[in-house]
Write a structure and sequence with these properties.
203 residues, 9 helices, 0% strand
Length: 203
């Protein structure tokens, strides 16, 4: 009698284990629920269902994505935080960027204009970019362009113009002391090279 109960428990346990194994490991992998899809389901679409190929301009210079932002307080807070991020990013940009880095920043600025959470602000910013495309050839050029475009927005909003000579003081790059020293050293070397070139050409 006791042996029968033990055998019965073992049999029931084996059945439950088999059901659990089937449920967790052998279930179909074509679930439409994104939360339980495998990575391969995201990267390998069904044949013939691939989206139309987009060009770089389609992505970077398309229409604004976000809707209007009606809360004026949220809009002002977002604007202040965004300008801090924007100017800090430009202050950290390389002084002598590679072609790839220049294209990355240019593309980012256009995507930033499309995805800015305030739809009407994004639309205005796109208008400024159409007139004054991003300048990305160096840190100083990019930072100067960023201050200029900020002042274009300020003028549109009837706000005072910002003194671009003080941009580095107002929007600190967050650099460590050794980075600042390296930047000053590079700037001094650049000035010395320019001065030597002028003297050579003058003689």
């Amino acid at each position: 009698m006791a042996n029968r109960q033990i055998a019965r428990r073992i049999f029931i346990g084996a059945v439950i284990a088999t059901i659990l194994l089937c449920f967790f490991f052998i279930r179909p992998q074509d679930s439409s629920n994104a939360a339980i899809r495998t990575p391969s389901q995201f990267t390998n679409p069904e044949p013939g269902s691939e989206p139309a190929a987009l060009t770089k301009d389609d992505v970077t210079k398309g229409d604004v994505v976000m809707p209007k932002l009606g809360n004026e307080t949220a809009k002002a807070e977002l604007g202040r935080a965004t300008w801090k991020y924007f100017h800090t990013m430009l202050a950290r940009y390389p002084e002598e960027p590679t072609t790839e880095q220049q294209e990355t920043l240019r593309s980012f600025i256009y995507l930033f204009a499309r995805l800015y959470p305030c739809g009407e602000c994004a639309s205005h910013f796109q208008g400024h970019l159409a007139k004054y495309p991003p300048q990305v050839s160096s840190r100083n050029i990019a930072s100067g362009w960023g201050c200029f475009i900020h002042n274009e927005v300020n003028a549109m909003l009837k706000k005072p113009e910002f003194d671009c000579n003080k941009i580095g003081d107002f929007y600190d790059c967050g650099c460590a002391d050794d980075e600042k020293a390296d930047d000053k050293k590079q700037e001094l070397q650049s000035r010395n090279s320019e001065a030597s070139a002028v003297q050579t050409n003058g003689n």
